[in-house]
Write a structure and sequence with these properties.
Helices cover 25% and strands 37% of the residues. It is built from 3 helices and 8 strands; from the N terminus they run αββββββββαα. The chain has helices at residues 4-18, 117-122, 130-145; strands spanning 26-37, 42-53, 60-68, 71-74, 78-80, 85-89, 97-101, 106-109. Strands 1, 2, 3, 4 and 5 form a 5-stranded antiparallel beta sheet that branches. A hairpin with a 4-residue loop joins strand 7 and strand 8. The longest helix is centred in the C-terminal third of the chain and has 16 residues, at 130-145. The radius of gyration is 15 Å and the shape is globular. The N and C termini lie far apart (40 Å). The model has no long low-confidence stretch (mean pLDDT 84).
Length: 146
C-alpha cells in the first residue's frame, strides 16, 4: 500500500494529467458510497473522486478515479460552474455533500480530513488531507450560500 504522501501525489498527478490548468487547483479526495438492500443480500458500490477547486471561487472539477493493481486510472473530468450547477446541498440524510448539474448528473460524496487505513481496507483510499479539507469546507459553504 502506498504511503499517504505517495497517494496524495498520485491523486494530484492523475488530476493534473487530464484537467487543463490542473496544478492551479487545490485537490481533495472524495468518495461516494451507495448501498442497495435487497431481501437476500446487500450491495455496496464505492466511487472515488478527486475534486479540484480554487479557494475563493465557486467552480469545481470532479474527476472519477479507479484504483487497479496499485495504479490510479482517471475517468472523464466534469467542470461544475455557475452556468451548469443546478443545486447544492450541504448534507443529505447520510451526511454527504450533494451537487446536481443542469444536465441531470448528481454527485453525493463525502470528504473527510483523514481516512484511516482501517476504513481503506473496506472501501476508501487511505489519505490524510486536513489542510485541503478545511479549504474545501470554505468552498462548500460558499456554494451552499450561492
Amino acid at each position: 500500500m502506498p504511503s499517504n504522501d505517495e497517494l496524495k501525489a498520485g491523486l494530484r498527478a492523475v488530476f493534473d494529467s487530464v484537467v487543463e490548468d490542473g496544478p492551479s487547483y487545490t485537490k481533495v479526495y472524495a468518495a461516494e458510497i451507495r448501498q442497495k438492500n435487497f431481501i437476500v443480500y446487500r450491495t455496496t458500490t464505492v466511487s472515488n473522486f478527486v475534486v479540484g477547486f480554487r479557494p475563493g471561487r465557486t467552480d469545481l472539477v470532479v474527476l472519477p478515479v479507479d484504483e487497479r493493481d496499485g495504479s490510479l486510472i482517471p475517468g472523464t473530468p466534469l467542470a461544475i460552474t455557475d452556468a451548469n450547477r443546478a443545486s447544492v446541498k450541504k448534507r443529505d440524510l447520510q451526511g454527504r455533500f450533494v451537487i446536481k448539474t443542469t444536465d441531470g448528473r448528481t454527485f453525493r460524496f463525502t470528504v473527510i480530513p483523514s481516512v484511516p487505513e482501517l476504513l481503506s481496507i473496506a472501501y476508501r483510499l487511505p489519505v490524510d488531507q486536513r489542510e485541503e479539507y478545511e479549504a474545501f469546507l470554505a468552498v462548500r459553504d460558499a456554494l451552499v450560500e450561492a
